Amino acid sequence: MSVEPGHFARSADGLPEDRFLDREESWLRFNQRVLDLAADPSLPLLERVRFLSIFATNLDEFFMVRVAGLTRRMATGIAVQSASGRQPREVLAHTSEVARELMLEHAALFREEILPALAKEGIEVLRWDELADTEKESLNRLFRRQIYPVLTPLVVDPAHPFPYISGQSLNLAVLVRDPEIGTTMFARVKVPPLLPRFLEASPSRFVPLEDVIAENLPALFTGTEILEHHAFRVTRNQDLEVDEDIAEDLLQALERELLRRRFGPVVRLEVEESITPEVLDLLMTELEVDERAVYRVPGPLDLGGMSAIADLDRSELKYPPFVPSEAALPHDTDIFATLRDHDVLVQHPYDSFTTSVERLIEDAAADPQVLAIKQTLYRTSGDSPIIDALIDAAEAGKQVVVVVEIKARFDEQANITWARKLERAGCHVVYGFVGLKTHCKVALVVRQESDGSLRRYCHIGTGNYNPKTARIYEDYGLLTADPEVGQDVSALFNHLTGYSRDTDYRRLLVAPDSLRAGLVERIEREIEHHEQGRPARIRFKCNALVDEVLIDALYRASQEGVPIDVWVRGICALRPGVPGMSETIQVRSILGRFLEHSRVYAFENGGEHEVWIGSADLMHRNLDRRVETLVRVTDPAHCADLVGRFDLAMGPNTKCWILGESGVWTRHGGDIDVQTNLMRARRWRTVES
Description:
Elements: H1 23-38, H2 45-75, H3 88-120, E1 124-125, H4 133-147, E2 154-156, E3 170-177, E4 184-190, E5 198-202, E6 205-208, H5 209-215, H6 217-220, E7 225-236, H7 250-261, E8 266-272, H8 277-287, E9 294-297, H9 307-310, H10 335-341, E10 344-348, H11 354-366, E11 370-377, H12 385-395, E12 399-404, H13 412-424, E13 428-430, E14 437-438, E15 441-448, E16 454-461, E17 473-480, H14 483-498, E18 508-511, H15 515-531, E19 538-542, H16 548-559, E20 564-568, E21 585-589, E22 595-596, E23 599-603, E24 610-614, H17 620-624, E25 626-633, H18 636-649, E26 656-659, E27 665-668, H19 674-688
Parallel strand pairs: 1-6, 8-9, 11-12, 12-13, 14-25, 17-22, 19-20, 20-21
Antiparallel strand pairs: 2-4, 3-4, 3-7, 5-6, 7-8, 10-17, 11-15, 15-16, 16-17, 18-25, 19-23, 21-26, 23-24, 24-25, 26-27
Helix pairs in contact: 1-2, 1-3, 2-3, 11-12, 15-16
């Protein structure tokens, strides 16, 4: 939404009524920044291809969840006004318009820049008519051997109703004519999702799978005439709705809902722009969508499949290899002795996840002096060493408690599978709270020391216990044997597993009980410091800033003159730089090789920095409907390191995007790339160690 500077209606508390940017558009503008990276000729070519693919898969999820939610609210008559002041119908209309513009921009970038650049490097993505005759013959043979047997053409006639079209599936809409009786029929052919998205016609020359199928349609409809064919793709509502208050068994209820999710209503119909009105009308009627949900784009569809091209073995067209540093916890040290001596702060992927977080759990599982391991799991990979270590610990007779969040969006089935595997191994598996997702990243190891005393070792992180994403997601983790943190984390697990109501934490802020209020309290304290002439500054790093209470608290601090830096990856509903409201606030976004994922909340605090890290973004769902944790970092060197990251990110010569008061993000060039800077620093540290 665009507004004229200074044109803000005032609310009763003195803040403008329209002081919040539209959440949905802000997310789309985040994805536009991803598209900016795909368009950046200074990046390695196959990394640009990867960003092109990420844009497409991001947009799929946006439609599956956010657009689906808006559509559901409209259908059920829930007229909830957004923070930006719009009704769901207005938001949906504007969101559809912006999404359509970005999809066309994405398709144009693919055709006009990415494809020619790939061709210059000897990698061609072609359509069927561009192939050589020998390549066509080779692909036709491949069709007969490996593709034809798995295809199922479905004709629509009085005996065969219109088939179910699964979400995110690529399909061919085919019109065929029976020459004997002259009848024209509609047929659908699903492009098999388990086959490669792009087939290699000859070395480094690729063609979309649907082109090969389309060329061979006569083999599927023998004795008929193929009149026309068009690719199409649908996106369905994939948001889960489980009534936890009435579900007797949450696991079974979720499994039933996962089955129903396959049949969610269509929220987007993508078609190639060459589709004829007759075929499009038929699809719209049968799929029950109106014109607003139709997105015509140049082919090919489903460019998320370009990730396969990005994965090609062409190292010269990719980022140079980076090996994480192991200096924070060298292999030849005793991890428990190290943590008894001092806290360790790691930042992945610059610091090794394997030799820090994984190692803590693996060493605990193998150590005969360890009595218990407790851990939350929100997302993890299918071959996670942490899962194996927890199973080993349980089989060795240690008490193992795992809080598995089976409602983690799009990982529900995987988490159910791992929960059952852990249970079979003897782990105590807990599914968290009714009505809340357990999103915090916390591990607790209880060890009997040589003197007979018990000591607790903890990890509190900003990212998931997932070794795969730890290589590409930027996250912090605090490993500590501090007794106060250990006591807090023990109380937290008692809260998660036994419904203990003890919320009197010393070094933790925990949602939904104390996190929002704790941050607001510290914002107000910065105002007091500023009024008294003491050093005051607020610095937030998060993935999303949407919560109106916290945004208003930041506005009040800005009105009092407190400098505020916001470093946000994705959604930001705060308007920075508005005279009289937010002129001391600057908002920046940094995207690059790694996905900025950590959450850091730093306060100048009169000259004695107070810094918190943890799992919580500043959104309603995080602060009200999830169990989240922030832990206070107390080591002065660690605090200085975290504050130094803000100095780097907010510097005048740093590459970033800067948010303006109207919601427009402007790309800012500079000599300093934050992620490259941190990689170089880790290389030097590794060499020195």
